[in-house]
Each structure stands twice: as C-alpha cells, then as structure tokens.
Amino acid sequence: MGFIPIFLEVTGKPCLVVGGGEVALRKVRTLVAAGAAPITVISTETSPAIAELADADAIRVLGRAYREGDMVGNQLVYAATGDAELSRRLFEEAARLNILINVADSPDYCSFIVPSVIRRGRLQIAISTEGASPALSRNLRQQMETWLGDELEVLLEVMAAARNWLKHHEPDGAVRSRKLNALAASDLGDALRRGDVPGVERIIVQCLGCAVGLADLGVQSLAIRSKTRPGDGA
Length: 234
Prior knowledge:
Layout (H helix, E strand, L loop, with lengths): L14 E4 L3 H13 L4 E4 L5 H8 L4 E3 L13 E4 L4 H14 L2 E4 L12 E5 L2 E5 L6 H12 L5 H19 L3 H12 L3 H7 L2 H12 L5 H4 L3 H7 L7
Parallel strand pairs: 1-2, 1-4, 2-3, 4-5
Antiparallel strand pairs: 6-7
Helix pairs in contact: 5-6, 5-7, 6-8
C-alpha cells in the first residue's frame, strides 16, 4: 500500500456518499464546503442533519440500499456503512470503474485516504498515517492547531495580493520571486497577529522595495484587525 499526498479539485464534480450516519455526514459536509455538485447520498436511513441538507437542496438523498452501477459517473465515492461485505463490493466496483473511493475505517478498501486537516483560510495542512492510526493523526492535528494562529488566513490573503501586484508591476521573474520570499520570511505574520497595520505596511514596503500599501494590494486593513485572536493585544 502506497499513498501520495494530493489535493483534489471537486468543485462542480459529482460525488457519492453511501451511508447516512454521523461519519457519512462528515463526508457530506466536506464535499459541500468544497463545492462538489451534485452530491448524492444513498442510504436506507439518514441522520436529521443529512435530511436538512437535502431539504435545503445542498444534496440529494436516495432513501434505499445501494445498487450496483449507482456510482457510475461520479468523481469519487465515500462509503460509511459499517457493512463489511458492502464495503468490499463498493471497493471492487470502484476499482473496475476507475473511480476514487474511501471506505471509512477500512484502509485496505481505499484508493485514497482522508487525512486530518488543519484549515486557516486558503491554508490546508493534511496529516496522514496511511490509515495506521487515525487517532494519532487527530492528536497531532489538535497539537498543531494550538500554535497555528488565525492570522495565517489573512497572511495568505496578503501574500496572494502581493504576488498578483508584482505580476503586474515587476517584469523580472527572479526579482518577483526574491521579493515574495523576503515577504514570506519577514515578521508580517507577527504584525498581523498584533493588528499592527502600520507595521504591516512598513514590512510590505521593505520587502517589495516600493511605496505600496494595503490599499494598493486590494487588502482592507479593517479585515486584518477583525482576524486577530482574542488576547493577542491591539
């Protein structure tokens, strides 16, 4: 068994969840947040939360048992049924159809594994033990979340804005790269965490080497202050 880390684009792609319990609900919410569509759930019973998503037209639910061929045309499949025989059949069908499948708590029946994920805006950090210990993955995620601050979300927005600005104002690719590396290695994150908007703008000027402020980058300074964590100071 060998896995490579990869982030899959599912926006606007059809995806299937087989199962209707709490584990299935987590998979459904992940797909909804990622913009997958349509999202189909197949299960004889579904949780109230899944029913609510169906009522809101975020997903569609087929209230019956899975039938061979139901997964045809889907980008990927999540299986969370607790039925070992059904899991095996789903995995074998997905392999024949060359469709990605994840079977909850059954790494031997997975063509992809769901990692523990830390999210800070555009930042995603995935932690995987290749199915050996999901509990350890969760524990590591919880530890890392204590020192990965919310300012990273805004930091990424500033970095993306600076990168876009340089594309339009700095024709030399090597110079652009050098300036962006300097910005990434600077104390910009610390200034954002403190809500120090003048300090943020000084760092941007120092790293980009020209008189450019947050407004020039299209970043609103009030958004930075609203993203600082309680207790970090003003």
